[in-house]
Amino acid sequence: MSCSCTASNNNTPETPQGLPTRVVLGRVVVGLAAWAGVYAMLAPTSNWLVARLPVEPGSHLADALAFFVYDTPKVLMLLALVVFAMGVVRTWFSAAHTRKLLSGRREGVGNVAAAVLGVFTPFCSCSAVPLFIGFVSAGVPLGVTFSFLIAAPMVNEIALGLLFGLVGWQVALAYFGFGLGVAIVAGWVIGRLHLDGWLEGWVRELRSVAAELPPERVTFADRVDAGIEAVREIVGKVWKWIVAGIALGAFIHGYVPADLLAEVMGRDAWWSVPAAVLLGIPMYSNAAGIVPVVEALLGKGAALGTVLAFMMSVIALSAPEMMILRKVLTARLIAVFVAVVGAGILGVGFLFNLLFV
């Protein structure tokens, strides 16, 4: 009897396992703090590890290893955090509710919102993939998620600052407008094609099992459990592809010579824009990493549109990004994504070459 009375007089909400909500909240806070601490130490730790390897400092191998050692845990940690957050959010909004909120007549607004969100998230293409996966698994329309995936790496403060310093604010502003336009229009076009059936089967299944319990019946612990389960489900399926994609990106980062690239592309010819896009797709870099190549190309007299097309293709259509997305998207859907975005980039390149002779 005493045990029963004690339990009935305890007003603290408890989990099904008997843990008070405040305990679960405390564990979440501690876990997030630990995540932030580890994330902050990634750069110095990776530099320390590479410095102790038997490789020559500053060599191609050292650059490639530093890139791999840093980006692998960074992208995996971002993926885990975002998927956990999206898993928690899904307990408030079922997949059907989310799709209804953002689809149909609201889809254009969703494309704009996703692209603008991408502008303010300082991610390279591979780092943006975790958010893309989280959006897709939460039932956000496919075209809207693609608008974010395109804008996040392509239109950011680094790219705009670079263009402002090199060629002035007019070109930087034009790049911002055209880059945002490519992200919005390309995402909208992909959404209009209704290619959700071209997602990988496990992703479609994941979207169909969003929590349907009324919010009042879901405890805080239930929401945390949903986030943890989402991490197990999604990260467990895609981590190998992420590591493989980053490995390819590390090789390209360390071994592709900027001088040779500038020599090949530094020509003002009609075919320079498509050649720039084709050359940029197999590469991998963020906006800051492509700065030396952009400067070299401009210094050798390459047309401005050619340089911008190359820059956009490198940071929005990288091969490592495609490798990671392959676990989520079918090859057909990746081909559509590359074709639509590539067409937009070609248009921007040719237009800039006409406007800025």
Model description:
With 357 residues, this protein is mainly alpha-helical. The chain has one domain. The model is unreliable at 1-17 and 210-215 (pLDDT under 50). Helix 3 (42-51) runs antiparallel to helix 4 (60-89), helix 4 (60-89) runs antiparallel to helix 12 and helix 6 packs across helix 10 (169-192). The longest helix has 36 residues, at 220-255. It has helices at residues 2-8, 21-40, 42-51, 60-89, 95-102, 107-119, 125-137, 142-154, 157-167, 169-192, 201-207, 220-255, 258-265, 272-280, 291-299, 304-316, 319-325, 331-355. The chain is built from 18 helices and no strands. The radius of gyration is 23 Å and the shape is globular.
Spans where pLDDT lies below 50 across 5 or more residues: 1-17, 210-215
Order of helices and strands: HHHHHHHHHHHHHHHHHH
Q: Main β-sheet, in a few words?
A: none
Q: Which class of secondary structure composition applies to the elements?
A: mainly alpha
Average pLDDT number: 75
Helical coverage, percent range = over 70%
Shape, principal axes of CA atoms = globular
Strand content: under 5%
Rounded to an integer in angstroms, the radius of gyration calculated over CA atoms is 23 Å
End-to-end separation: 89 Å
* Overall number of strands: 0
Number of domains: 1
**Can you count the helices?**
18
Write the layout of secondary structure elements.
Blueprint: H1 2-8, H2 21-40, H3 42-51, H4 60-89, H5 95-102, H6 107-119, H7 125-137, H8 142-154, H9 157-167, H10 169-192, H11 201-207, H12 220-255, H13 258-265, H14 272-280, H15 291-299, H16 304-316, H17 319-325, H18 331-355
Helix pairs in contact: 3-4, 4-7, 4-12, 6-8, 6-10, 7-8, 8-10, 8-16, 9-10, 10-18, 12-17, 13-15, 14-16, 16-18
